[in-house]
Design brief:
Layout (H helix, E strand, L loop, with lengths): L12 E3 L10 H28 L6 H30 L3 E3 H34 L4 H4 L2 H19 L1 H8 L15 H5 L7 H33 L4 H9 L2 H23 L5 H26 L1 H19 L1
Antiparallel strand pairs: 1-2
Helix pairs in contact: 1-2, 1-11, 2-3, 2-5, 2-11, 3-5, 3-6, 3-8, 3-10, 8-9, 10-11, 11-12
Length: 317
């Protein structure tokens, strides 16, 4: 296979990496990885099914959870094809256009998840600060409008990425650092001026950090409101309503912050660590979010228990 052509029109392939130094064990690594994908898919589909069929969950918080679940599934499906090809079939090459498309969807669903987590934090603040007007302010129509705005805002934010990458010239280097394509990873391979990509990539990362800071502000306001509640029991009840969302925020943002620090500031880091952190970014949130919300949400937990009991009696009969 020839290396990437310098011509703008004839870029051919990039090379993705599996687990550096553990290539001999890729087939074994694929087993837990596929299991995590299947569990994440099953968990997220279960959440969507329960929210759709359980009338008590037809509330703004759970509608936003549905959007979060869809973004998790989008992240999983965006990275799944290349990761399975690498670990199951040892096929590490990806065409340039497929790579640009993959990084667009990965960054788009990442931005969408960040936006939804921000909206969910405002939702929790509104529910605690003004519970009497909560239902009238966040109607089903308004929730749908917010979801549509989040979707378009997230994907329009990353829409320039594939086009700016397509305009760059790629010379000899074509090996990427991860098992899937990321904007900041691809642009480093360019031998032409990538200043526009650097600036816009920084702007995209800054938007995620703004979301994170606004979430922090929301929780400062929530804490201020909770401390103003006279009853300690009501204070704990209000805080408990936020635990699932706090866990989702930590699960999502911690790998992103670590990966961003590694890419921007760390010069010499183990390639294996780089790949592990990148895989955690896409594998862990879709896997853990359904578990967190199942454990902390009584209605979802009860519904799952009923489904399990129904299946058991069905098999016995």
């Amino acid at each position: 296979m020839s290396i990437i052509n310098i011509s703008h029109a004839e870029i051919t392939t990039f090379i993705l990496v599996g687990m550096p130094g553990l290539e001999y064990a890729h087939i074994w690594i694929s087993i837990p990885m596929c299991s995590m994908y299947l569990i994440a898919l099953l968990g997220n589909c279960t959440i969507l099914f329960i929210i759709k069929t359980e009338p008590s969950l037809h509330e703004p918080m759970y509608y936003f959870l549905s959007i979060l679940t869809l973004s998790d599934m989008g992240l999983s499906f965006s990275s799944l094809p290349t990761m399975l090809r690498i670990f199951l079939f040892k096929a590490s090459e990806i065409s340039a256009n497929a790579c640009f498309a993959q990084q667009f969807f990965i960054h788009g669903f990442t931005a969408l998840e960040s936006s939804v987590l921000l909206i969910m934090s405002f939702d929790r603040f509104l529910a605690i600060h003004n519970p009497l007007r909560y239902s009238s302010l966040l109607t089903t129509l308004r929730v749908a409008q917010i979801g549509i705005v989040c979707f378009f805002k997230s994907f329009l934010l990353v829409l320039p990425f594939p086009f700016t990458l397509r305009m760059l010239k790629y010379c000899e280097k074509r090996q990427l650092s991860h098992s899937y394509c990321l904007h900041q990873d691809v642009m480093k391979l360019a031998c032409s001026d990538n200043q526009i990509d650097v600036i816009y990539g920084f702007f995209g990362a800054l938007c995620l950090m703004v979301d994170f800071m606004l979430i922090a502000v929301s929780y400062i306001l929530i804490l201020k409101t909770v401390l103003g509640i006279a009853s300690q029991k009501e204070q704990l009840k209000a805080l408990n309503a936020c635990v699932s969302h706090i866990c989702a925020v930590i699960i999502f943002y911690l790998p992103i912050i670590n990966l961003a620090i590694v890419h921007r500031f760390v010069q010499h880091v183990s390639p294996l660590f780089n790949v592990l952190m990148a895989n955690v970014l896409l594998l862990v949130p879709p896997l853990m979010n359904p578990i967190v919300y199942c454990v902390k949400t009584r209605q979802i937990r009860d519904k799952i228990s009923h489904i399990i009991i129904y299946i058991q009696f069905g098999f016995r009969s």
